[in-house]
Amino acid sequence: MSFQRAYYPAACYAQVNGERRLYVCGGYDGSNYLSSCEYLSMDTKTWFIVPSMSTARGFVSGALLSIGGKLFVVCGGYNMRPFSSCETLDVNTNMWY
């Protein structure tokens, strides 16, 4: 992983084009809230860096919809301010929306 994630990341399992992946997005490293995102290929046991989210988020939730391969990183917060927003990653193109 590109960062030590001590607290509160979102983790979500996905299968993308037959590859089993565990996505880890956002979180808190004890000093900073994180916008970074990585995934672990469960097949090769290798970590891959994904482009960062537009917003640093701790205390987040993640969900994956198999239809269209979208990963949703939902809510979370930053410096004790809760968010009501969502960021969406297209896991086929690694583009955030």
Q: What's this entry about, in short?
A:
This protein is mainly beta.
Explained architecture:
This protein has strands at residues 10-16, 19-25, 37-41, 46-50, 61-65, 70-74, 77-78, 81-82, 86-90, 95-96. The strands form three sheets. The protein has a four-stranded antiparallel sheet, with no helix packed on it. The chain starts with 9 loop residues before the first strand and ends with a strand. It is globular and about 40 Å long. The model has no long low-confidence stretch (mean pLDDT 77). It is built from no helices and ten strands. The chain has 97 residues and is an all-beta fold.
Helical amount: under 10%
Q: What value does the Rg take, in angstroms?
A: 13 Å
Mean pLDDT: 77
Q: Looking across the biggest beta sheet, what order are the strands in?
A: 1-2-3-4
Major sheet: 4 strands, antiparallel
Please mark out the parts with pLDDT under 50 across 5 or more consecutive residues, or reply none: none
- Strand and helix order: EEEEEEEEEE
Distance between the termini: 22 Å
**What is the molecular shape?**
globular
Tally of individual helices: 0
Beta-strand content estimate:
over 45%
Regarding quaternary structure, what we see is single chain
Which structural class is indicated by helix and strand composition? mainly beta
Total strand segments: 10
Features:
4-stranded antiparallel sheet, 97 residues, mainly beta
Helices and strands in order:
Elements: E1 10-16, E2 19-25, E3 37-41, E4 46-50, E5 61-65, E6 70-74, E7 77-78, E8 81-82, E9 86-90, E10 95-96
Antiparallel strand pairs: 1-2, 2-3, 3-4, 5-6, 6-9, 7-8, 9-10
